[in-house]
Give the backbone structure.
Amino acid sequence: MKTITLECLRGLEAPARVAIRRQNGRCQAYLQTTSPRPLAQLCRRRPVEELPRLVTLLSPAHHLAAALALDRLGEVTPPEMAQNMREGLRLALTYRRHLRKLYFLLLAWENPWANGDSLGSRRRSHTFPPRLMDDAWRHLSLAQEAVAILGGRFDHPVTAVAGGVSRFLKEEHYARLAVIAGACRDFALSFSDFLASQVFLWGREEGWLAAELPPLPSLTLSTPEEQFVRRDGRGQEQERFTAAALWEKVGRHQEPWTYEDFAYFREQGWQHLEPTSVDHLFAVGPLPRLNSGTPASAPAAVGEVERLCSVLGPLPRRELAAAYWALLVDLLQAAESMVELYTPEKLTGPTLRHIPAGWGREAQAVVESPAGWLFIQVRVDERGLIEDLQLLDPATANNALCCLVAQQVVAAAAAANLGWQDTKKRLELSLLPL
Amino acid sequence: MKQGANKKKVAVYTATGCRTCEHAMVDLHYEVNPLTHWAEVVFWPYLLGSAWEDLNGEGRVDVCFFAGAVQTADDQAAAVRLRDKSQILVAVGACAAFGGLPGLANLSPAGPEPEAAPEPSPEMPPLPPLLPKVLALGSVVPVDYVVPGCPPTPPLLWAAFQAVAGLGTAPARLGYAASRLPGPVAEALAAGLLPPRGSVFAGDKAVCASCSRVKEEKLFRRVLRPYQAYEESGRCLLEQGLICQGVATREGCGGLCTAVGVPCRGCFGKPPAIVDPGAKMVAAISSTIDSSDAEEIACLAEDFVDLAGTFYRYLLPSQCLLMATPMTVGKHEDHNP
Amino acid sequence: MSDFEPKIIAFLCNWCSYVAADAAGVSRFLQKPNVRVIRVNCSGMVDPTYVLQAFALGADGVIIGGCWPGDCHYISGNIKAMRRAPLLKKLLSELGIEPARFRLEWIAASEPGPYARIMNEMVDEIRSLGPRREMRATA
């Protein structure tokens, strides 16, 4: 049996590699997360108010989910200003993360640090507008600045605390945030025109963004009521349940070849990980959200969805181009929301936080993070020290989807007799938006 | 700025942690002149998809920026391989420098057994095994320079880049960094020479020196947990009864966290004058307890929770006297972690 | 475990407990040989770092001997030691060192008997606790 290991996949956040085992002409691919980050173990016996800072090891959005869980645990509601500041942070994080992903996509063509076209033999038939990459980077930097203003630091935010936020914004921040929001929105609009016409369409036509993701059911969050909506692989709604019932419906499963857990529906029970049997699994994130028809409120985002449908076809969509396009829709939605939210009226108020009188024993919260919804449940002892932490974040929820995509890509590459370098590039391209 | 043959060959890698340090490095590309003018990145898996094989034909790498703690056998192998290959090895970020948040695993025993995973079968590829303890990079291989922080702040990261991978030109932005760095490092930076091996790119004093809060008199009458009421701006947090690690933490960040109303948690590691940050915090807090009565003191001590997890939040694998793995002795003995 | 001989480090203040130790020796009080004495000028000068360092270097127990409150040669040095002890004990126990392994005791210069008794008790207690256990990371 021969094993090929494709290590250090470009753009992958988690430490992971793809191991391909060849036997008797058959190829089986395993997307292995090669190092664990056992948050539950790291957080045990820590004071629960430290949770928002501890969980940023996994992603900045975890900070907001943890703060919300603390609000519930302390039975307080943050004042409106604090809620707006947290939401403002969430929007800036969304903008930053999605723009970074799209930048990585484009970096494949125009890479200041690498030689050559990373898509192998595909010839570029389009040229980029001058300074596009610079512009993208500049707006990424602006979003970064918004994160620093609202989150306290440019990464691993610290300002969301139990019951609210930790400090008022300064005078100069309001004007700056408004400028940032306007600039980010304007850029998102022009960027979307370029992406839609030059990249996504072309990619789909040329084939390398045409591959279809496996038809997994989806689990999306309906925010005002905090309900999960389960849809099958064709987009038909099957059931709704409250966030509180998540662990009844969803289980965690471990495989010995990866350090990341899998999530699955208990009703069907865990089955093998194969592209043909996926009903016990689910996907989260921008594409499932897009396919669920969750109405985007911002006109630019709505318009982008219409453009997507006119180019690719009616929803639900499963091709890779749609996965990237969903990031763009979210980007526009975030940008427009930032313009609405980054105003002195919304971000000013008399009170920073409502201080909890004490802690309950258990609380849970769910937040829409850029990569998908993020569920957190914490149980504490009588002193407020963490006894148990249960997280279901997009990395775990989408682990099955990513593993199946890896299998699919490797199988297709093997069938087309591609070398391992090209296979690796296809893997990177396919996993980037997930 | 010179180009061409004088470009330094740079490698960047993260073991176990997150991608924030690498993002911080990429952000430098925008913040200042493009790094590509004087750096040739020969190995950067996250950004370029570089494979380990890419290192084979390259000769020596001039500078390797290594982030992430060493938790698995693969992390350890990567550290050894990059140390071998690189002229200069820089530990970037709290995880590589001290062990970081993953290092908390050394303190917590594993919880109840999770749902039993199925037994591995022969056709499944193996996973890299976990090491018995999480380690800082310096415990595995000798490290030449350290850039602490979770993540490192842009001025200090840029100072590090300039010092080891730049070509000796010192743009104006170095002013802030140089003012916070110890004398020998700042001078070397300005002169375009390599700083003394083992230098940490941060200040020599404690965070209190750069913190914007007002320090009056330190008297502990009662302990506050961070969710309880305190002034969000103005007065020193330690004086208000919160545990703030700034007293025992190296400065350099400019007091970022305290400026936004949350107590420092020590991501820059201990300053050179301190041997063990936990001991220092015990001494500092105890010396300000406003009582001479044994019962009262014992009662007050009861209100403190999770001392080890707070004083050594990022530092367990390397700076906690009782739990640290010793640093590997490098070529020069003046390495002071 | 039956041949485990604990090593105990005793920081004794020059003016009271060290004198008591000396007197205990001269008076031939029976003492177990497991204690190594470090003479310091005052119990208040024992920085928590020394205690941690002692444990890090392999001590099985550490004891600080000081003057009774009110009798300190430097007025309030022993009060400083008293302020540190509870937090230090807490930190040690979180790092896997049982509270019984660290003690702060008041021993006057005129108390050689109590000195010997305290040391012997401590040795016995730590012998029954056994060698220090390692805290290890597990998956």
Observations:
- Chain B has twelve helices and seven strands.
- Chain B touches chain C through 38 residues (CB under 8 Å).
- The first strand of chain B starts at residue 8 and ends at 14.
